[in-house]
Design a protein that fits this description.
16% strand; 13 strands; single chain; Rossmann fold; binds UDP-4-deoxy-4-formamido-beta-L-arabinopyranose; 42% helix; 347 residues; two-stranded parallel sheet; 2 domains; UDP-galactose 4-epimerase, domain 1
Length: 347
């Protein structure tokens, strides 16, 4: 028995695409809504190749309420929503704050408006560990007070969580889960899909592009922090583990297990890894020496953050399966696949 149709916004993006694979593999029917401003149909092609079936994408700007409502009218059998669609670059949000507030907040408000108007009572919201800011105790758990957001992007996630809470409190019968991702990395083991960014800012794609020669070198942003080796600490988590948590969240909601109208979960491995340690792990897995240099700190960087993921393990039955080496292995194999695809396109 198929547990029902899920609407995935941002389904042509990195985490959205990997989540669609896990949802369909667990019996859900899925449609995607993605305006392709950040996502790409290439992601969907890879998802369809893995699944052996097509996935419909509605090319809709979610800040347009009429166009968003039209998707719900055409799909009255939607039982749950996963809302990924948002701009997510920390740097870009500093340069274009209004774009980030308009896009990330208006799209969420429209999605919740449609959930209410078309009685879709199960919603999963894509949040981020960046809501914690520079927490004064580690690891962070879901009760850790939120510090000041370090960027407009992070603030849109803090505001998004408040909007979800107020909505769920006001409208009985709606159940919302907020998922705070730590640092999603890696690619589906088949390497049919992975992170597609021409000029990435995130550490792992910068490393793999440097290792494959797309970039001359990479810079470690600061080695003078108060950490064990001076570089920042993050909690890296494989994108397929993040995907699995979304499936578990929907199963939890659809089974009526949610005891709160709005529940938050940390999605991290629970392990803090420094930038220099991650580079060493990559070099060991790839067998490549990484051309990197030590440079100045990057504005807005949190010094250290990693998760206490007990609540998601206990309540969602979620278990991260991929080790750091596996994260590096799939990220590296994906970068090599991109190079082969590019060479084939040029021939
Ligand atoms: C990780 C570490 C950098 C690049 C952000 C968002 C978060 C999520 C993931 C959306 C930092 C260092 C990086 C480089 C480096 N976004 N680094 N050289 O900033 O932890 O998280 O992206 O979901 O919400 O906040 O990720 O990969 O950019 O940086 O030294 O060329 O790697 O300084 O310490 P970040 P990141």
């Amino acid at each position: 028995m198929i547990p029902g149709k899920i609407l995935v916004t941002g389904g042509c993006g990195y985490i959205g695409g990997h989540t669609i694979v896990d949802l369909v593999n667990n019996g859900f029917d899925v449609i995607s809504v993605d305006d392709l401003s950040r996502g790409s149909l290439r992601m969907l092609e890879g998802v369809e190749a893995i699944l052996g079936r097509t996935i419909k994408n509605y090319k809709v700007d979610l800040t347009n309420l009429d166009d968003t409502q039209a998707v719900f009218i055409e799909n009255p059998d939607i039982v749950g929503i996963i809302h990924f669609a948002a701009y997510k670059s920390v740097n870009e949000s500093v340069e274009q704050p209004l774009n980030y507030y308009r896009n990330n907040i208006n799209s969420l408000v429209n999605i919740l408006q449609c959930a209410k108007d078309y009685q879709v009572s199960n919603v999963v919201f894509s949040s981020s560990c960046s809501v914690y800011g520079n927490a004064d105790r580690l690891p962070v758990d879901e009760q850790t007070p939120l510090a000041t957001a370090e960027s407009p992007y992070a603030f849109t996630k803090q505001i998004g969580e408040v909007i979800c809470r107020d909505f769920a409190r006001q409208h009985a019968g709606f159940n919302i889960i907020l998922l705070r991702y730590f640092n999603p990395v890696g690619a589906h083991p088949s390497v049919q899909i992975g992170e597609l960014q021409e000029k990435p800012e995130n550490l792992v794609p910068v490393i793999t592009q440097t290792a494959i020669g797309k970039r001359e070198s990479m810079t470690v942003f600061g080695d003078d922090y108060d950490t064990r080796d001076g570089s920042c600490i993050r909690d890296y988590i494989h994108v397929m583990d993040i995907a699995q948590a979304h499936t578990r969240s929907l199963e939890y909601l659809l089974a009526g297990k949610s005891r709160e109208a709005c529940t938050v979960f940390n999605l991290g491995s629970g392990n803090g890894v420094t930038v220099l340690e991650l580079i060493k792990a990559f070099e060991a897995v790839s067998g490549r020496k990484l051309n990197h240099m030590l440079g100045p700190r990057r504005a807005g960087d949190v010094i250290a953050v990693y998760a206490d993921n007990t609540k998601a393990r206990k309540l969602l039955g979620w278990e991260p399966r991929y080790s750091l080496d596996k994260m590096m292995d799939t990220a590296w194999r994906w970068e090599q696949k991109l190079q082969v695809d590019e060479q084939m396109r040029m021939n």
